[in-house]
Amino acid sequence: MHAWPASEVPALPGKGRDLRIHDTATGGRVTLAPGPVARIYVCGITPYDATHMGHAATYNAFDLVQRVWLDTKRQVHYVQNVTDVDDPLLERAIRDGIDWVGLAERETALFREDMTALRMLPPQHYIGAVEAIPGIIPLVERLRDSGAAYELEGDIYFSVDADPHFGQVSNYDTELMRHLSAERGGDPDRPGKKNPLDPMLWMAAREGEPSWDGASLGAGRPGWHIECVAIALDHLGMSFDVQGGGSDLIFPHHEMGASHAQALTGEFPMAKAYVHAGMVGLDGEKMSKSRGNLVFVSRLRRDGVDPAAIRLALLSHHYRADWEWTDQVLQDAVERLGRWRAAVSRPDGPSADALVEELREALSDDLDAPAALAAVDRWAALQDAEGGTDESAPGLVSRAVDALLGVAL
């Protein structure tokens, strides 16, 4: 599966700062100092509907992570998956009377278009669950053969008791885990499981559903969590720098994925930092496909909204915050974009050297994009009020905003 084209990231004078970021597992900030190549895995979409603002906010957060690392003169090895076979996708295809493969391909293509328009840097490896199946099967077999997994009526389950570190990503109690498991695709009440929290690794073939030859596992398809584990281990190995996604993935997805990987390798941790973006709401509820309360990136683009304004709307909220999408949020972003473009269109202006360092400091401090926007606002206001004589300043501001915030002026 191919990703989307990369926009050029301008090089800035000097060098950026190492990223200090909130780690869900420890509950505090960690300073990430990768080697020459920083490694990040971000969980991708289940392509049964178009990209909404909740998706966009999540991928914007991890785009900022990449930009901070690139500014430190590191390379970035970024991997993202596409869950192109899963219950919600199959259910939507049945509801709409269309082929599930065609639905996945159509919505993945639209996601690529949205990511390109928003200037999100693409992953080096963009892998679908279906194409990962040949690598998933031997991992499930290894877990089963080592005693870390067991069979139940043809299905294969992972035993959470096989990982002594289980629970150390979310730090949730058992009651909350069980509630979230039932809410987010698990089956804690199924009779015969060793532990109600045990997640499925391999689902035996069901009538009318797609399945693949699973060798000794029998015909079936993979569970949700093992998909990401297989892709991450194949392309990044253990102890990569950042495992990213929305806060709704903390449990069960990232908790279970970490335990799968740790049981497979005997190493800990799977990732050095577990980083999660907040939820975007609309009309008082989390924006989600299941609720249908969605604001689509593609629809805004069709209505003529500049993608740079959409991106500024996302950046106006801290990535870990839960926030509400409103018409006013977008209008504020449109107006900000106009002020910034007017400020950099002049032939000279106030020196921007200090601004570049302000942007670097804000973003290295747990991706504080609102502080970065405020710094550019101050420079633009000074430009409007007093101007300046530095002929290089407008160009430097444009390059810095592009390189660090992904907004083309």
Which secondary structure elements does this structure contain, and how are they paired or packed?
Layout: E1 19-23, E2 28-32, E3 37-42, H1 53-71, E4 75-82, H2 87-96, H3 100-117, E5 125-128, H4 129-145, E6 149-152, E7 155-158, H5 174-183, E8 200-204, E9 220-222, H6 224-235, E10 240-246, H7 250-265, E11 271-277, E12 280-282, E13 285-286, H8 297-302, H9 307-315, E14 323-324, H10 327-344, H11 353-364, H12 369-385, H13 393-405
Q: What do these coordinates show?
A:
- The protein has 2 domains: 34-277, Rossmann fold (3-Layer(aba) Sandwich); 299-405, Up-down Bundle (Four Helix Bundle (Hemerythrin (Met), subunit A)).
- 43% of the residues lie in helices and 16% in strands.
- It is built from 13 helices and 14 strands.
- It has helices at 53-71, 87-96, 100-117, 129-145, 174-183, 224-235, 250-265, 297-302, 307-315, 327-344, 353-364, 369-385, 393-405, and strands at 19-23, 28-32, 37-42, 75-82, 125-128, 149-152, 155-158, 200-204, 220-222, 240-246, 271-277, 280-282, 285-286, 323-324.
- The strands form 4 sheets. Strands 5-4-3-10-11 form a 5-stranded parallel sheet, sandwiched between helices.
- A hairpin with a 4-residue loop joins strand 1 and strand 2.
